[in-house]
Amino acid sequence: MNATAQIEPKPAAAAPLIRLQNVRKVYRTGGAESVAVSDVTLDINEGDLLSVVGPSGCGKTTVLKILAGLHSADGGSVNIGDGHGSFVEGRDVGMVFQQPLLLKWRTITENVILPAQILGLPLRAARERARDLLQMVGLGKAGDKYPFELSGGMQQRAAIARALIHDPKLVLMDEPFGALDAITREKMNLEMLRIWQESRKTFVFVTHGIQEAVFLGSHCAVLTAGPARMADYFSIDLPHPRHLDIKTTNAFGDYVKRVYRQLGMD
Ligand SMILES: Nc1ncnc2c1ncn2[C@@H]1O[C@H](COP(=O)(O)OP(=O)(O)OP(=O)(O)O)[C@@H](O)[C@H]1O
């Protein structure tokens, strides 16, 4: 070996966008305490789609609220961004809820640009971006319509476009397809994967649906209730693009069984 050869330093692995370590949240009401989340530890890298799955009351929404900066944790640590003020919750988070929550007196475009207006971003650019986003979510012709003219699935697509209008780094989705019928929900799952890949954003997707969690996720966190804790966290190494027939494969079934096992349902 040449003694003068330079040894190139190994590039440092990129830091995760989000690091939760032993996160705990206790709600206190009327002198009573209830542990909503205990001991959640996970990393979310930029560009991941993390599914958070678990039964009602296991603390999924609480984890989202902590990520959104709406609640602080009572224990453990929450690190988002590089710690130098480059991540600002109001600006860098987009949210999608179970209901689309569109303002009925505004057109779809006017609904989509609302977060940009609230943040004081230039409106002309926001309108242009809204046009592109509506195209991306399959609503290219619906910008001038009002919410009542759209189906539930279309309204939820508009809500996804609205969550992306201010170009957030992180998109938090709380059971966004829970109110849709089964067939529309399957279609929205396919759309969701396409939107995730096109937008190149980091998504955290809360669901009760075990199959939905496995189908969508690049990673999956399983929370259990009573006591609320994180039971499992793993990456889902199923190939992309994912089509619905992947659900009939053994590999998909193995991930689903893993979640069932953690929830005591095997
Ligand atoms: N603001 C609050 N004050 C007191 N307790 C709360 C509050 N919010 C949630 N909880 C309790 O904390 C626990 C976790 O609630 P959370 O909403 O995070 O669960 P979840 O998994 O999202 O439930 P679901 O799937 O039904 O929406 C539940 O027992 C709930 O009753």
Automatic annotation (TrEMBL):
<dbReference type="Pfam" id="PF00005">
    <property type="entry name" value="ABC_tran"/>
</dbReference>
<dbReference type="InterPro" id="IPR017871">
    <property type="entry name" value="ABC_transporter-like_CS"/>
</dbReference>
<comment type="similarity">
    <text>Belongs to the ABC transporter superfamily.</text>
</comment>
<dbReference type="InterPro" id="IPR003439">
    <property type="entry name" value="ABC_transporter-like_ATP-bd"/>
</dbReference>
<keyword id="KW-0547">Nucleotide-binding</keyword>
<keyword id="KW-0813">Transport</keyword>
<dbReference type="GO" id="GO:0016887">
    <property type="term" value="F:ATP hydrolysis activity"/>
</dbReference>
<feature type="domain" description="ABC transporter">
    <location>
        <begin position="18"/>
        <end position="250"/>
    </location>
</feature>
<dbReference type="GO" id="GO:0005524">
    <property type="term" value="F:ATP binding"/>
</dbReference>
<dbReference type="InterPro" id="IPR027417">
    <property type="entry name" value="P-loop_NTPase"/>
</dbReference>
<keyword id="KW-0067">ATP-binding</keyword>
<dbReference type="InterPro" id="IPR050166">
    <property type="entry name" value="ABC_transporter_ATP-bind"/>
</dbReference>
<dbReference type="InterPro" id="IPR003593">
    <property type="entry name" value="AAA+_ATPase"/>
</dbReference>
<protein>
    <recommendedName>
        <fullName>ABC transporter domain-containing protein</fullName>
    </recommendedName>
</protein>
